[in-house]
């Protein structure tokens, strides 16, 4: 891939606001938030408390990389028509929603494991998360949005590549449709 990035900054500015509020914002319960890759039963309570945190390391790493590449976006933003659900990174004009799914909370096929204690409760909880993810995907697709989901174990560079390509693709659409 070449390095022809003429006009990238101007084209990619998809917000009017602040890009990254950092990690010290107010906490709010956000089901499905990633909380690290360890899945031992001893880690469950730790994960539960960390679930309340708004930002997680994999999300921050992706945001940082996207920002470094000149992309501008909204962070932790409500989804259209689903005020109580949020995308980790959102390009509103280009209608792209990006999620960084935690391996535990979203039942990653490689790292997702079921806790031994209260296993029935956990199985239901995690299944509900996955069902909600698919429901969110379907809703967004139905209204013409592009959904990009990454696992927290994904390499940040390749995730950022995929986002960048989607933004370029949708920029063409956006410019054609609205300008
Ligand atoms: Zn994983």
TrEMBL record:
Family indicated by similarity: Belongs to the Vsr family.
CDD domains xrefs: Vsr
GO BP of this protein: mismatch repair
The keyword Ion transport appears for this protein: no
Keyword annotations of the record: DNA damage, DNA repair, Endonuclease, Hydrolase, Nuclease
Keyword Transcription regulation tagged: no
Residue ranges with Low complexity bias: 32-46
Region (Disordered) residue spans: 17-54
Protein name per the record: Very short patch repair endonuclease
Family matches, as Pfam families: Vsr
């Amino acid at each position: 891939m070449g390095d022809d990035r003429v006009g990238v900054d101007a084209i990619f500015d998809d917000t009017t606001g602040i890009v990254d509020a950092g990690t010290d914002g107010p906490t709010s319960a956000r089901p499905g938030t990633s909380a690290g890759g360890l899945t031992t039963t001893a880690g469950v309570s730790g994960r539960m408390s960390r679930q309340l945190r708004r930002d997680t390391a994999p999300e921050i790493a992706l945001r940082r990389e996207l920002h470094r590449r000149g992309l501008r976006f909204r962070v932790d933003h409500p989804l259209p028509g689903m005020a109580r659900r949020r995308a980790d990174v959102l390009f509103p004009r280009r209608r792209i929603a990006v999620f960084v799914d935690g391996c535990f909370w979203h039942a990653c096929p490689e790292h997702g494991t079921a806790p031994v204690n209260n296993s029935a409760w956990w199985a239901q909880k995690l299944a509900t998360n996955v069902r909600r993810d698919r429901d969110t995907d379907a809703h967004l697709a139905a209204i013409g949005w592009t959904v990009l989901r990454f696992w927290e174990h994904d390499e940040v560079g390749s995730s950022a590549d995929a986002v960048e390509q989607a933004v370029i693709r949708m920029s063409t659409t956006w410019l054609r449709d609205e300008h």
